Amino acid sequence: MPEQPTYAVGLDAGSSRTRMVVCALEEDRLRLIGCAAVASEGWSKGAIADQQAVARSILAALEEAEKSAGVPIGSVVVGMGGPSLRGANGRGTLELGYPREIQQRDVNRVKERAARVQLPEDRMVLQLYPQDFVVDDQSGHRDPRKMTASRLELNVHLMTAPTRDHNALVGAVNQAHLVAEETVFEAQAAWYAAVLPEERQEGLALIDIGAESTSLVVYYRETMCLAWALRVSAAHFTRDLARGLCISPVDAEQVKIEYGCANAADSPENVRLELPAPEGREPRQAPKKHVDLILESRARELFQLVRGELARVGMEHALTGGIFIAGGGAKLAEIADVAERELGCQSRFGLPVGIADWPAVMNDPEWCTVAGLAMYSAKLKEQAERRRAAMGWLSKIL
Question: The pTM is what?
Answer without folding.
Answer: 0.91
